[in-house]
Amino acid sequence: MAKKSSLTQMKYDKENMEKITIKLHKVKDADIINAIDKENKQGSIKKLIRNGINNEN
Q1: Is 4 a member of any domain?
Q2: pTM greater than 0.70
Q3: Is residue 14 part of a domain?
């Protein structure tokens, strides 16, 4: 059985988080992979997306 803190985290995640998954081709998407191939992939992806959003405005 899961610990109480795990259940609390699962409930929080269900209510507040969204998981998005993408598949990238190692050759055709190498530029994207290289741009996010860092220790903090999530932070790198968020930064790139936010920069793109800011450049559109």
Answers
A1: no
A2: no
A3: no
Q: Is residue 7 part of a domain?
A: no
- Digit-coded pLDDT (tens) for 1-57: 567 789 999 999 999 999 999 999 999 999 999 988 778 899 989 998 999 999 987
Q: Which of 34, 48, 10, 29 is nearest to 1 (CA)?
A: 10
Number of domains present in the structure of the chain: 1
Rounded-to-integer distance, Cα 38 and Cα 45, Å = 10
Entry field: residues in the chain: 57
CB 51 within 8 A of CB 57: no
Report the alpha-carbon distance of residue 23 to residue 31 in Å, rounded: 14
